[in-house]
Amino acid sequence: MKIQLATKPLSEIKSDFVVFPVFEPEESTSNLNSILPIGKLEIIKQFLSDNPKFGKLFESQLLYTKDQKIILLGLGKKSKLDFKSLQHWAGAATKSSLTKAKQISLFLPQDITLSVEEIGQAVAIGAEIALFDPSKTYKSEAEPTKLVSVEIIVERAERGYQDGLKRGQIIAEGINLVRRLGDMPANDMTPTYFLNIVKEIAKENKLKLTVLDEKQAKKKGMGAFCGVAQGSDEPSYMIALEHSGNIRTKDKMGLIGKGITFDTGGLNLKPGNHMNEMQYDMLGAAAVLATMQIAAKLGFKSNLVGVMPVTENMPGAHAQKPGDIVKTYSGKTAEVLNTDAEGRLVLIDAVAFAQQDFKATKLIDLATLTGAIIVALGDFYTGAFGNNPKFTQDIIASGAKVGEKIWELPMDEEFDEMVKGDFGDITNIGHGGSMPGAAGSITGAKFIEAGVKDNAPWVHLDIAGTAWDMKPKPYRGKGATGVSVKTLVELLSNT
In 3D, which of 439, 391, 436 has the Cα closest to residue 412? Predict the structure, then answer.
């Protein structure tokens, strides 16, 4: 989609819809003062005078003048405006016009705390995410999208706006990649398909690609990954992409993403309800892939490795069994007490692969790991678990800046006892709590942490509650959200 800046007066705008932001009135303000051009249009002034409380986020009203169709779109309280609310406002404006207009014009809010680059970035991300609807791919009669252009009306076409728009579109391209891959059904989104997409992105962006098939992974000693993979007839892969942005330093960020393209639970079979959503169990790997693509396109001056263990978790004839003991690539042995706790098994090998083979000095893993995190934090926060308080807080702060909420959970030594094995070194589910499943998200993180060597800074992000959303929003369709991509890009931008 074409997103462009314009400084033309209202009278010269020829778009199908002109969208004005309106702030919700607060104690000392009126919604009449939301934006400068509003006062020039009597029809808007009259409407806001008659509706003094108008302006709640996403509240909308269509008005007609002689020459234009005007949408007033609520932006919420000005005191609460942040990157996320502006992004979602732009998304709502775009989504509402997808099938009704070829071009819309957006007036931006005035006198806000965001920089012009942040404004441009937020608006571009919001518009591009709203435009992209992966759910239409498989519909035989999808309503066609008409919208091809969004015009951003500003007082002065500052360089920062243009830089922000460009950056935002590159980030949105990555987020939409995650959404597209995640929303594909598992009969299409196989490990082999994922690998082929990785190969295309590696070639287009000059990223170095390393691929281990199951035989190579087994020979290397990745018993945990291979144990999960052996139950599926689909080939499985341990994939790594490298971006070299600074040859003068040995510092390297390792990004590791869980890539279970379909999770039945294995022999510990999941209940049938919502099992169809287990196609989304590869969204950690998709987020890592998108971040690597963005890093290359934006030319990050840092060294990165993205590791993606990609497989299915199936109850085939050769599937691993509860009670199996596997040797992980880190050297630790693991008791497989539950085959549905497979994510941590593939991740412990992938984290060790990033650290040992690619010399990553910091590690972040992302995974739709536990239902327990949804019990703890709902669908609104990603859970963070780390061994280095500053590194963890840097990630949380990066998320907050771009509107992704992350909450840190404890990782005290007492939890180590809950994953200590009787026959192996560690167990892939926790035990010893006062009830089954106690500290379920923490014990999952503790298992992965056991594979980290030399106390390298490491953070685990459990995105099980935030990675997909089956309720459509005013600014985005249902399905995969692309969570954590913005957070990682913001973090890496300041590394």
Answer: 439
pLDDT digits (tens, 9 = 90+) for 36-95: 455 457 888 889 989 999 999 999 999 998 889 999 999 999 999 999 999 999 999 999
For residue range 169-196, list pLDDT tens digits in order: 999 999 999 999 999 999 999 999 999 9
Cα–Cα distance list, 372 to 445, 473, 481 (Å):
12, 25, 20
30 confidence band (pLDDT: 50, 70, 90) = low
Provide the domain limits for residue 89.
2-155
Return the CATH number at 220: 3.40.630.10
Tokens of 17: 């819809």
- Distances in Å between the Cα of 41 and the Cα atoms of 47, 64, 223, 398 are 10, 11, 69, 40
Both 135 and 229 in one domain: the answer is no
100 in a domain, yes or no?
A: yes
Give which of 46, 81, 40, 39 is closest to 63, Cα–Cα. Answer: 46
Tell me, yes or no, if the pTM score tops 0.70: yes
Are 185 and 301 in a shared domain? yes
Largest CA distance in the chain: 80
Residues with catalytic function: 270, 344
Q: Are residues 207 and 299 in contact, defined by beta-carbon separation less than 8 angstroms?
A: no
Question: What whole-number distance in Å separates Cα of residue 435 and Cα of residue 35?
Answer: 56
Domain count, the chain: 2
245 and 311 within one domain: yes
Same domain assignment for residues 151 and 59:
yes
